[in-house]
Each structure stands twice: as structure tokens, then as C-alpha cells.
């Protein structure tokens, strides 16, 4: 399996790359090859006097390349120019990556209301499963907030086809997962369940599959706003990563309203893994 690890060479990116536990987690789920990607933004002009941005980035990224090689991975480095989320997404699709990893310090409440960072733009557009690795927000020398990416998973489902696809990632995450909390949030728009297909029953079926892999599970059925309730469960059980399917929306809806998955990327305390539609 291949993974793209995106970096802007900031202290937050360095925290993701140099965290041995995070790299070990990637190895456990079957990642063997890591493509280290850094993007020189389009608005940084190559002709600016006395500055060769590509050369400087290649020099800076070498230490990260050595860290990843020392951890036992094959490494390929990409220093490219363009819009960061588009180039990262394009490289992931081109190489057939199974996973994209990007660090994020999160956003202030005001910033959450506007078109956001590379992580949020990737959340909107990625066609590859995406991990947003949460980094300390205020620290000068930040570290990752949850070191074990897949040890304790909070899986949120609306029982859609996309949610089912997100659940299927347990087929490889299970090699690094010890505990899972399965959450469904009922809303007023949900149809009335029959006795055979109630939320508790459907979560129990999913839990039984995980228990076959010796993953300790618990179920939560809640009522209310999906993002709010999922984040309330996160506060209660302290998972290392929230796993959720990511549905596409129209361009207007993406820009103005967002989605549950985008809310989680913006507001979660820990890591978020998004699985896009097939």
C-alpha cells in the first residue's frame, strides 16, 4: 500500500512526520511506500529575485525523507508548484495511494465559517481516504495530539452506502485498532425503523464483525445534530481518530453549508479519517 504524506515544511508538518508512533501505525496497516509531497503555492513567483523556492524546499525536505527511510518505508519526494490541495490530490490519484495524510492545527470559530485550509479543501475534494492529523494549535514546537492513529476508533455511520465503505477500512485498520465506538445519530428526517432494522440492531451487527477481529466495541445511538452529537461522543470516549464517510455535495453547498465530515475536520479535538464515495 502507498500513502501520500503532505507537508508545507512548517512546525506542524514536522510534528506529523517526525512522530515515530504515527509512522509505526502506518506500517501496521500495510503502508510500505510513502510519497512525501510539498507544494510551492502558485502565487509564489519563481522569478522573485535571489530566491529559488523549489531548490530550497528540496533541501529542507531531505531531513524528512531520511526520517521516513529510517522508519523502514520506501520514500519518493515530490516538490511541485500549484494549488496545494489540488496538487496533493492529483499525486495521490496518479500513484494509486490508499491514504493521504495531512497535518492540521485546526481553526478558530471565525475561520471555520470561511473557505478553509488545505486540510478542509482536501476534505471537500479528495478521492482517496484522508487522515487529518491534529496538531497542537498554540505551541511554538507543536506535537501531535493523538499519537496512535488507529488504536481507538470512533466510527460514525448513517447506514448509507458511503458509510458502509468507510466501515470496510477496518479490514486493514484492524491491525492497529484495539477499541471501536460505533455511533449513529438519529435526526427528525430519518424514517421510522422497523423492529428488525432499528439503529441498535444495525450497530450490533457491525460490532459483531469487529469483535471477530478482537476489537473491543461499544455502541452509541443519539438524537440531534449529527456533527454535534459525534463530537460529544468524542469528548466522552477520547478516541484517537474519528472515522466517517465523506459525501460529495454540489459546489454551492460545499462553499456555503459544508457537511458533517467538514464540521468534524474543523472542530474535532483529535484526528479525523474521511473515506470518500467510490
Automatic annotation (TrEMBL):
Superkingdom of source: Archaea
Annotated ranges, domain UspA: 4-132, 150-276
Transmembrane domains' residue ranges: none
InterPro entries, per database record: Rossmann-like_a/b/a_fold, Universal_stress_UspA, UspA
PANTHER family: STRESS RESPONSE PROTEIN NHAX (PTHR46268), UNIVERSAL STRESS PROTEIN UP12 (PTHR46268:SF6)
Family that this chain belongs to: Belongs to the universal stress protein A family.
Protein's recorded name: Universal stress protein
